[in-house]
Structures are given as C-alpha cells and as structure tokens.
Write a structure and sequence with these properties.
mainly beta
C-alpha cells in the first residue's frame, strides 16, 4: 500500500508540471506596442447562474456547427461538461466522477453534434448527444500501453479523419472511429527529444497540429503522420512573437491556428505555416482598445464558424474562470 501511495504521489507531481508556469513573469502589466493589432471583446460567458458559480476551473473548450459551446468544468476528480447556446445562455451540464485524479476531460464534437470527452488518466471515452445525454462509453484499455503510463490528452474530430487522440505518455497519436473502433496510430518520436503531445487539431487538408508542451513548440504532420515542420521556442519575453512558455490548447479555423499559453496568459494566433499574426491577452469591457483587464491561465481555445475566438480563462483580479469571446477581425490603435 505504501508503494502504491508513493508511485501515485510521484505521478501527480510529474503531471502537474505539464501545464504549469515555468518561469516568473509579470504578464498583467499590459502595454500595447505601437500599431499592434488586437481583438475586441464581444462577450463574457459563464457568469453565475441562479446565484451559483458556473465554473470551478474551465478547461477543454469546443464549439459545434450551430454555435453551441461546450466546456469542461473541473473540480478535482469531479467534472462537468457544461453547455451554453450561441448566445452564451447556460443550457445544461453532464457530470462525471473519476476514480483517480484524472485532472482533465478533453472535448471534441463531430459533425452531427455529438460530444466526446476523454479522461487523461483512464481508459475512458464518453460519447454524448448534443443535449448531453450519455450515449455510450469506451473503456477498453487494449490500445493504451498502461505499462508506459499512457496519458490521453487532446481529442479532435474531423470528417474523413475520425477521432484523433494524443497519447501524451507514449508520444503517439491514435485514430478511432466515432463508434470507438481503433483504426490506426503513429509515433511522434522523430530522432530527437521526447515529444509530449498535448492538445491536437487539424486543418481543412487534414494536416495535424499538436502542442508539444515539453519542447515548447507546435508540430505539424500530414494526415499520414509524416512530420512537416515545427515552430515556437521557449522564451521569457511575453512579446516575443515566436516565444512560448507553456502551450496547452490549440484550435484551427479558416487558415488560422490559435494557441493558448498558460504561463504567458495569452492566446497567440498563427497561420498554418507558423507565421505570427496576433495575440489576445487583455481587453476592455467596452469593446475598445484593451488596456485594463488581462486574461489569466488560459486552458481552452476554440473558433466559431465566423472565426471569432473563444478562450476559457480567468480574469485578473476576479478569481473565477469564464469563457471570453473575441472578434475575428483585428483592430489597430
């Protein structure tokens, strides 16, 4: 029993570093460089409902074809998948209690509106309909090398591709059908450092983008798993265009890649070749030039069909998480 407790303790310490702040910084002093584009705040979603807080910790975030918003609300080993409509109104929640401290449920949605949630540290995937009714669960561990402490992180669906799941523990990506059948997989190891894939997305051509948290970069593969390129590097300067510190979440829409960086408290937006376009780190509630509020520890990012950017994050000085909706259009000083 003592050995089990020691191993469990070591595991939690290791995993807690996957998306933790890596270096001291002061990102809350916001200064807009001259002629820097910014995105206007359009909405704050997830204020209290009937006097109750909606979120403890807002994590994974995904939006369906009708604009409905789904987010993981994590409360230690208890989780909720919370649904809002496209207007930001709270609709419902589906609750799940894990048997271990699984840390996260990662979410995706298919073209029929079904929602998929996978638990990082368990052989568990839940399939829900669009109203958050549980349809089925897959708990087959045969595709996960538990001896190597498989840790399922990002999950992403695209028509013609199926479900892609990042296996953080085994440095690989696995592909499943929407009924839970294992289809294929490929290793992320390419003759260099261990590649710890975190969140995952695809573009319209089926290219795969994955957050390599340990190596502080974004990696791009073709649909067959052939490595194409990477971009990003460890940096301690928050305005460094190529710099990242703790990238945790990624999303694609209309030729743009959004990356949420937990440590630097911002979302950076790139094109599909890794060229820097803009970043979201602060806002004003009147929708004009940002200057008075900063986002804190973003852990989820998504686009809607119009290209607007949604971020699950805290707001500096307020002590609770919300979903922040920003314009797709960029504005200048």
């Amino acid at each position: 029993m003592r050995n089990v407790l020691i191993i469990t303790g070591l595991f939690l310490v290791i995993m807690s570093h996957a998306c933790m702040k890596k270096a001291p910084s002061d990102p809350h002093v916001f200064v807009t460089p001259t002629n820097t584009p910014y995105h206007k705040l359009l909405a704050i979603i997830g204020d209290d409902v009937d006097g109750e807080k909606v979120f403890s910790t807002a994590r994974g975030l995904v939006i369906d074809n009708n604009g409905n918003i789904f987010v993981n609300n994590r409360i230690f080993i208890d989780h909720e998948v919370v649904k809002f409509n496209k207007h930001g109104d709270y609709i419902d929640a589906w609750s799940y209690t894990t048997t271990v401290a699984s840390w996260d449920l990662f979410l995706t949605v298919d073209s029929s509106g079904n929602v998929y949630a996978n638990s990082r540290c368990e052989c568990f995937i839940a399939k829900l309909d669009n109203n958050l009714n549980l349809l089925e669960t897959w708990e087959d561990c045969s595709q996960w090398n538990t001896e190597e402490e498989s840790k399922k992180t990002g999950i992403h669906y695209r028509d013609g591709v199926g479900l892609l799941i990042s296996d953080y523990g085994n440095n690989s990506i696995k592909r499943f059908s929407t009924s839970g059948q294992y289809l294929s997989g490929f290793s992320l190891i390419a003759g260099e450092a261990m590649i710890r894939g975190f969140d995952i997305t695809t573009d319209d051509a089926g290219n795969i983008y994955i957050v390599d948290n340990d190596n502080t970069c974004i990696r791009k593969y073709d649909s067959n798993g052939n490595f194409i390129k990477k971009w990003g590097r460890l940096s301690y300067t928050s305005w460094d265009q190529d710099g990242l510190q703790s990238p945790c979440a990624i999303a694609y829409q209309g030729g743009k890649i959004a990356v949420a960086d937990y440590n630097f408290d911002y979302v950076k937006i790139f094109d599909t070749e890794g060229n820097y376009l803009s970043q979201i780190r602060a806002f004003s509630e009147d929708g004009e030039k940002p200057f008075n509020k900063t986002i804190v520890s973003p852990l989820g990012v998504a686009f809607d069909s119009e290209g607007n950017v949604y971020v699950s994050a805290g707001i500096y000085g307020e002590g609770k998480d919300r979903i922040l909706k920003f314009s797709s259009e960029m504005f200048y000083e």
